[in-house]
Amino acid sequence: MWRKILDQFQDSPSQQRVVRFLLENGFGVSPEGKTIVNGIEISASALSRVIKVDRRVVDATLRRIIEIDELQSLFSRLRVTPDLTDVAKNLGLSVITILPNNAGDKNIVSSAVDVLASYDLTLRQIFVTDPYVVETPRLVIIIDGVIPAEAIQKLRSLPTVRSLIL
Question: InterPro entries, per this entry (predicted)?
Fold first, then answer.
């Protein structure tokens, strides 16, 4: 599905970068063609600085999105969810980032969760980055407390795991 969305902007690599940024970050588009984050408007100038494109590219991309019913319907519903990764240590949580061998493998999440469940660890947050939207897809799991060394070894030995970042 993401590929289909990005293909709509195939004729403009800079607009495709804007769309990719919106998708990666959960930024929506209002019916008026403004970027919104959980209902809060973000200026095209602010976005253009972060994405490193001209503000007019952002404006043109947003207009294009609201002109295509399927895209307008999708982008009007996007929401941002807090990512606890950078504050986990302050909250007494641990972060496990798994880089998969093959992001298309259907067992990545279940095999990792099975290992952690066998140690009776409480999962606080889990998310997977979409391989169609990001260059380096990953599975991020945030748990209460410290991850036992044995659990780390079992995670590393899973056939779906290329590498593990703690």
Answer: UCP004897_ACT
Which pair of tokens denotes residue 113?
């969760």
Torsion of CA 141, 146, 147, 148, to 10 degrees: -170
CA distance 141 to 159: 18
pTM of the entire predicted model? 0.74
Question: Rounded to an integer, what distance in angstroms lies between the CA atom of residue 126 and that of residue 144?
Answer: 12
pLDDT tens per residue across span 78-127: 999 888 999 999 999 999 999 998 888 888 999 999 999 999 999 999 99
Q: Are 14 and 57 in contact (CB under 8 A)?
A: yes
Comparing C-alpha atoms, which of 41, 21, 22 is closest to residue 30? 41
Residues 135-159 have a mean pLDDT of 93
Contact 101, 162 (CB under 8 A): yes
Contact 128, 108 (CB under 8 A): yes
Whole-number Å distance between alpha carbons of 108 and 128: 10
Measured N-to-C along each axis, helices 44-51 and 55-67 cross at an angle, to the nearest 10 degrees, of 110
Residue 143 confidence class, pLDDT cut points 50, 70, 90: very high
